[in-house]
């Protein structure tokens, strides 16, 4: 006959009763035990890090303040550092004292801003016979290409020397378009190049303010206008290196 395993019975008086209040008490005890050795050092470290970062920000502000004061006191404005004379209209020589300037506007599907940039370039205060505007359109949307071309034709009908150019590929993207534009035969006589992006809206007198720096300072190769946001951006004029 098989032996039966002994049975162990626990009297009801010794059964372990666990209540929710006991669990809460144990969790509270555990928290009290780990709070001081673990949480407090982490919080202390965080406070020191915040203090160090605040000190770094303060030192940076002080440094930038000193730099701004020194610039205001000792840094000469461009018209003081470089030779600059305003462009004068000469009745005897006509417009010959104005160099021929090529304005390049690279575009790519610029439906919203193409009229603004083309119009701004066409309204530049510069003799029409000494200005060549080149719209370099890499748009892939046929409808936009047609709109840009019609806008160029509209300004051309007003006597503006504006050219609409496209190419078969987008090699080099906008920089490639600018490079291809310089290969056109009708720009070989241009002495300076001015680059406006498709959303740029230069002031009418921009060329009259920028070109004299290049004319009177042979060691300067590029003049960049101030970067502004919203209604216009950064413009650049440079010498032509054919």
From TrEMBL:
Subcellular localization, as worded in the UniProt entry: Golgi apparatus membrane
Keywords for the protein's UniProt record, in alphabetical order: Cell wall biogenesis/degradation, Glycosyltransferase, Golgi apparatus, Membrane, Transferase, Transmembrane, Transmembrane helix
Membrane topology recorded in Swiss-Prot or TrEMBL: Multi-pass membrane protein
A family per Pfam: Glycos_transf_2
Glycosyltransferase 2-like domain location: 104-230
Transmembrane residue ranges: 45-75
The protein's name in its UniProt record: Glycosyltransferase 2-like domain-containing protein
